[in-house]
Amino acid sequence: MYNEKVMDAFKNPKNVGEIENADGVGLVGNESCGDIMQIFLKIENDIIIDAKFKTFGCAAAIATSSTATEMVKGMTVKEALELTNKKVVETLGGLPAQKIHCSVLAEEAIKKAIEDYQSKKA
């Protein structure tokens, strides 16, 4: 069902945990499957210097959380806002059609964390 990249990201996830005093936190969930994803961002001079996640969900939810947090590290806030679920899926080498919603959650959680950061900054 899952390719090797997805299984590796699931079995060896990067950035698991919480950032104390995070500059932005995004929490999203999918009621139909029960996945819950929370992304924490540390941002300095509009550059994401750290990203962590806490996810309750399936292998695809954990793999997309890990991959998305890896992808945004080092990006500017503007660049991270342009991250799409399609880019996350491409980086993972694909996901089964019924698991694409997990990559959408990852995109939404990143965007919510950035919105949180921007609202605190305003």
Question: How would you describe what is shown here?
Answer:
A 3-stranded antiparallel β-sheet has the order 1-2-3. The protein is built from 5 helices and 3 strands; from the N terminus they run H-E-E-E-H-H-H-H. It is globular, with a radius of gyration of 13 Å. Strand 2 (35-44) and strand 3 form a beta hairpin. The protein has 122 residues and is an alpha+beta fold. Helix 2 (59-72) packs across helix 5 (100-121) and helix 4 (85-91) packs across helix 5 (100-121). Helix content is 46%, strand content 22%.
Features:
122 residues, Sufe protein. Chain: A, 3 strands, alpha+beta, 3-stranded antiparallel β-sheet
Task: Compile the SSE list and pairings.
Elements: H1 4-11, E1 24-30, E2 35-44, E3 47-56, H2 59-72, H3 77-81, H4 85-91, H5 100-121
Structurally, the number of domains stands at 1
Strands of the biggest beta sheet: in what spatial order? 1-2-3
Strand residue percentage = 15-25%
Query: Would you identify the regions where 5 or more consecutive residues have pLDDT less than 50?
Result: none
Helices and strands, in order, run as HEEEHHHH
CATH topology: Sufe protein. Chain: A
* CATH architecture type: Alpha-Beta Complex
Amino- and carboxy-terminal Cα gap: 44 Å
According to DSSP, the number of beta strands is 3
Overall average residue pLDDT: 96
Biggest sheet, open or closed, and with what strands and sense?
Answer: 3 strands, antiparallel
| Large-scale geometry | globular
Q: Please compute the radius of gyration using only Cα atoms.
A: 13 Å
Helix content: 40-55%
CATH class: Alpha Beta
- Helix/sheet category: alpha+beta
**So how many helices?**
5
